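Morning. Coffee machine broken again, so started the prediction first thing and wrote up yesterday's gels while waiting. Chain of 264 residues, entered below exactly as on the submission form.
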Amino acid sequence: MLPPTRTVLARDAGLYAMEQGLRRRGFTRVAGADEAGRGACAGPLVAAAAILPPGRRGEVPDLNDSKLLTPVIRERVYDEVVRRAVAWSVVIVPPGDIDARGLHVCNLAAMRRALASLSSRPEYVLTDGFPVAGLGVPGLAVWKGDQVAACIAAASVIAKVTRDRIMCELADTWPQYGFADHKGYATPEHSAALHTHGACPHHRFSYANVAVVAGTPGPRGTVSVAPAVGEAPAVGDVPEVGAVLAVDDDEDAWVGVASGGHGA
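Came back before lunch.
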């Protein structure tokens, strides 16, 4: 028996080529998943998933890895993604869960939950960097996926915009930390504020820099953090994040907000 044919993509085929290749193989609904806030020492971890429609409607202007977009363009792309998407969802993991369960466990669980929460079931899943088991459909972990696959880039924009809005809201309550500027990453300004004011409930106490200030390392040890590079503040008014739904099941505790889409 001959092995099945493979779909070969050129390295410079563009952001939409991977999904187009999968659709040619019969996978109509291709979902992407990504997270924001993995390297921050304050604030939640946010995971998102998205399915873009085929054809021109799924080609979102300026879509790219969220970290490569300016705040103004990122907000505009976010609006276009949620308007055009077949389905999208967001899952938020609070700092306490990260301290208790570990960053990597929470990251995978949040992406799995975001994918499971999509209103339209995906037929194939692309994830940024890490394979996610237990999805019930075939999938592929893509290195630097938010720069390679459109659906992952769309998820990265949803995750980052959602998280940035949350950090701006936290800045209203905890203005001394400058969350609206650095979004919880370990900038020199954030480190100075930590040493001056101590840690607040929204810091991750399992991270080394927070644990040193608090004097109480987290239950799972400490995670080293590097200073943030190029983290820009969001602009304009902060819209509502959405109605928060708290969920606690046998696998992971998580908090989910917002899902939507137009169906297949």
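The chain has a mean pLDDT of 82. Going to sketch it on the whiteboard this afternoon.
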